[in-house]
Structure prediction request, 333 residues.
Amino acid sequence: MDRMDFIQGVTRTRVLETRLLSKARIDRMIEAKDIEEVFKILNETEYSNAVAGISRSEDYENILSHELKRVYKLMREISKNQIVVDLMALKYDYHNLKVLVKERKLNKDLSDLYIPIGTADFQKIKDGFLEGNLRDMQPEFKDAIEAVIKDFELTKDPQRIDLIFDKFYFEHLYKMAVNTGIELFINYVRDMIDFINIKSSIRLKKQGKDMGFFEDVLLPNGNIDKDAILFTLNDSIENMINRFKNSRISSKLIKGLEAYKATDRLSDLEKYMDNYLVEINQPSKYVSFGPEPIFSYIVAKEAEIKTLRIIMVSKLNKLSPDATRERVRDLYV
Prediction:
């Protein structure tokens, strides 16, 4: 990957970064009296076109979906190499595969759950799947679908659809990141895998799952040794904190585990994971030549959209500004 190929893309990305929502504007939305006031504040930003089409406060998700699609379309135009965008878009391919298989195997209409973002032509994938023809499908998607269907026919357990697709997704994502040779991309994926494995350990412990089940769920290619992760299934939170205090992700992991211990909410650990993944992208602000700023801008926008979703849901549920502020993520700006 030639870093000089991204000079123009980085220049355009620097302009886009100036339009990211500031902390002051986020604070105004947190303090807003209702979601309608949040919409008015957003109308002052690049979200204005999306807000214009909203007539009911309950349709807030349309604003966020519109912005997400706009951003991915724009970054594909900006990026000289599409893999930079694909690294962030791949999760939507696998999300859509989950929905597709669940629709077929559970005999439900889940069409409103599809997300029209990804690395491949999903309509072509869907048509091939419904016709029973997987030959022309990308090998990673084909292998994932076949594994999920085979497992479901044996177990009839819909929960395993998500688990198996997730495993294929992260293996696919890691392979893509390694192929770029870009340190940030590889670290982003490996660090995320570590967070997810630790989160899975806590969740499965609460569900009373055994070591065999956890080993099946455990994602490969993280930085933390597989055995160290497996042993956490029998660890207290205090022991987990001590076990991982010297890991790459310890700066936010320890805070996340302490927050979980205090609240018993996995969402608190997820917040610190999200903050960490934004934090490791911040050095991209100082990269003049290369793909990192484009990738990091997408990370920033997704974090921003997640923060807006938290604020909007909080307003609909009439949560206090303080309760909302506890839930929002750190910003890239």
